[in-house]
Amino acid sequence: MIEPLSEAERIDALDGLPDWDHDDGRDAITRRFVFADFSEAFGFMTRVALLAEKADHHPEWSNVWNRVDVTLTTHDAGGLSVRDVAMAQAIDAVVG
Amino acid sequence: MIEPLSEAERIDALDGLPDWDHDDGRDAITRRFVFADFSEAFGFMTRVALLAEKADHHPEWSNVWNRVDVTLTTHDAGGLSVRDVAMAQAIDAVVG
Description:
With 96 residues, chain A is of the alpha+beta class. Chain A has one domain: Transcriptional coactivator/pterin dehydratase (Gyrase A, domain 2), CATH 3.30.1360.20. Chain A is built from three helices and four strands. Chain A has a four-stranded antiparallel sheet with strand order 1-2-4-3, covered by helices on one side. Chain A binds chain B through residues 38-39, 42, 45-46, 49, 52-53, 58, 60-65, and chain B through 38-39, 42, 45-46, 49, 52-53, 58, 60-65. Strand 3 (60-64) of chain A pairs antiparallel with strand 3 (60-64) of chain B, so a sheet runs across the interface.
């Protein structure tokens, strides 16, 4: 079982992830990524898929051509956990 | 410019795609695929991505762990076209 972030930890985490939006209703973070075309978008998705499988922590995501919308939350924690923060940082590193 | 399917063509096409649902509001077809785990789901997505890029016709889709929801429609036609029918058949062939 993984613990959800405390209120103070959540505030700190969101400060450190300026490109991510917080979905209060679900206690999730979301980010939209826009690429030149589908090939770039799916290349990104493939890299994130490898990160996700390695961490055993998977995004909820959707793709329409050059656009990828990523949502991170930890179902076992009922909201954001350190695993989401780590995954968001790893995804940010993919896009530089 | 690609033509949308006529009413008769749409009925025929949907008869031939029994695993797909028709979204009347958008004139799109949708199918949910459920796999054993994320690895299988993303393997499927990778195969569909290759098909889509080859056909230059891309799905709208979302993935949550072992589940992939696929929507096909042709924006240039304002609804279903032969390109969607061909892509649905190709995707069905991937899952056997």
